[in-house]
């Protein structure tokens, strides 16, 4: 019997050994794939187990965390949610993250290795650091002015500090409260569905994710191309463009919003927004020259990040002469984000050099130690300083005597350009009202702010639909706030 | 390590040591480890030592001390590892259940478990004190099997709980009689096989290398098989069915040494399991979940319980998250009972799990050790049976929750929440201590060897064949001393309970 007892014992211990081998399989070999399974709640529990770091505007948090006591413990809350939604985006337990919440997630959620006191600290201790803070470049007062100015109308505002590329305001309207999406309750699902279905598309960040035909504001780019390519050598000299102007290759004539555009100079054409002169100049510069200049301003660049991705502003790479003529006045397939047009104004304001726009000034640990600081970086040299000087003069003319008078600020040099873009089949849709501008205090070495405003349904379709009437006052309000010394 | 312990020949014991001091020291360690775990849970969860940590330690220590005194009094030669292992496993079980209680404040299981553990230790003490000779049990073989059958049949009359009819509910208390039935069955099998093993071993035909048993002794085997199938079908309890059948096959093999039984057993178990797996929806669901634990995720229904259990183990990794820092509560239903091992795996890691497996392995090995050291067939078979119960149960439960075999609803010995289970396991340990104590006890009159060996032994049929005698002598300790019961008999004297059996 002894032998059989031994065999039975061996069998029993073999079974226990099999358990051990299987435990190694599950806990070591398969651990990684099981930990990463989408059905595994542990990563989410860990992620929401600590309060998320805050996003700050002007030194004050615009976000917060709420202890729900549920399994996913901390929920995001937003102070002034709709105002800052185009900056922060949302952080939802159900739908993930968007915009800054997404781009800076590592710092905000505490997983960024740079937050740890030592390299590999988090891996070693199997912990995460308290969520860090993200300090934005947004100027609170400018943001509020832009949001107030749009007043619920569809549109967007982007404002940049030309010398540095700091984004001072980024507003999209109508907006939404991202706090509605924070949790994981059925109400969140319902809010998500409602917001996505809404005809006004409140979750669309129109400032960086929507492109519009830039209309006459694009004439600044065309003028830069004409000057750079020496098609125009003296902006004050009369051109040889006839009025009515027949679009090359067609029998269509191009209308002008004002009289006096026949053989008008470049300065006059910018001041009064002559379609004929600018379309003609675009054709004379040619596709290659127009593409090169538009590209230097940021068109056709799909890699721009602020740090959220910015939609590509488009200038077609292959066009016939008539299409080029229309594209040169911001029609046809030419589209731009509001941020892109603010960059156009900023390039002019900064002497032709375009700083890369950015939204995050720096990130810190919860205690305030700097983790990363965004440096000023040059994006591209959009044009020669001489060209920029000429364009400055023209934009000042346009603001002071031409179409942009409603953007003027006492004691401040303001340059601007209006735009009223057609859209829809046969121009049936409501035009967009555009205004791009920059402002420089007398005595200041350079302009302190460049801004682009687009309003989608100015003064409720049908009325006076112009950039000068609807968009310029908003731009003025933003610039007034941006010119004030920054609040501490 | 444990394998060596099981297979090494028993050491020469010229003067067996009692080693109760070792047991006491190990008990202190076991209690301290449990109290440390309890404290650690509190520190990890709320940053404070649980206010009742001292009371918990004192309670567990008191239980351990009483059990130790009982062993010291009545089974002074028992192996010193058995009791500390049981106390440590029970203590860790309480820690794990207390830890899971923190996640479900409305449903606290640890206090009840502590009450059941106390009852278990009380029964342990009673068994050790009252049962002076394990061979007494042999006389109650048929009473055992009848009670076992009754215990197994009664729950069928009660409503099913979570798909299985294995509970009796009375006055808010639920009770799982199948747990007790397994001890009773082990006693019956040991007694039956001790009496009939030669008939089973030496009849039948040989076909090739396989020795087939004769048809007329096949009856009881088929009967047991039918019982386990009935348990499976009527109670929908795959685990218990597997346990009963595995227990019987192992004991049958040890008693007869016939591999034919193993073949027959495997065939019967295989066909029964296959039939159940295809026909019975409850069992089929378990098998399907085992084949692909993540199918429900792909189907969009969220992770199955088994998948959650696998997530738990995986999340623990090698070193674990630390007590109180895991999320095994995601398993949901039965996290404190059938799936308690997942909490150990997640929070103590592979290291802690290995330690637990080693403890179980030691317990099983000590059972087999007692079986090897004992001299009477009934005692040997009972020890083997009890060890096999532990081994099979650990394998079936741990294998189930780690995806090695299909899930079955059984409790991890000592760890899992469940009163009947804890009480039963304490009785098993009490019996093992009794058997181990008898096996290791000194035999003061080696001179009597010849005399007593010839005396009629209630465990052996009259006129045993020569082969059995040879086997007996092949036992490593069998040469110099008489059979184990001899010592027992002379020690307990005519007043002992064994005297009645002898007087026959």
From TrEMBL, chain A:
Domain spans labelled Penicillin-binding protein transpeptidase: 155-479
A GO molecular-function annotation: penicillin binding
SUPFAM superfamilies xrefs: beta-lactamase/transpeptidase-like (SSF56601)
Record's signal peptide: 1-23
Gene3D superfamilies per UniProt: DD-peptidase/beta-lactamase superfamily, Penicillin-binding protein 2a (Domain 2)
Keywords carried by this UniProt record: Signal
Lineage top rank: taxon: Bacteria
Chain ranges of the Penicillin binding protein A dimerisation domain: 52-134
Biological process terms in GO annotation: cell wall organization
GO cellular component terms, A-Z: plasma membrane
Name under which the protein is recorded: Penicillin-binding protein
Species the sequence originates in: Streptomyces pacificus
TrEMBL record, chain B:
Annotated GO MF terms: lipid-linked peptidoglycan transporter activity
InterPro entries: FtsW/RodA
A Pfam family hit: FTSW_RODA_SPOVE
Protein name: FtsW/RodA/SpoVE family cell cycle protein
Coiled coil regions, renumbered to chain: none
Keyword Heme applies: no
Transmembrane segments: 21-41, 53-69, 81-100, 112-131, 140-160, 180-200, 212-232, 261-279, 348-369, 381-405, 411-433
Biased composition (Low complexity): 493-504
Residue ranges, annotated region (Disordered): 448-504
Organism: Streptomyces pacificus
Compartments where found: Membrane
Top-level taxon of the source organism: Bacteria
Bilayer topology annotation: Multi-pass membrane protein
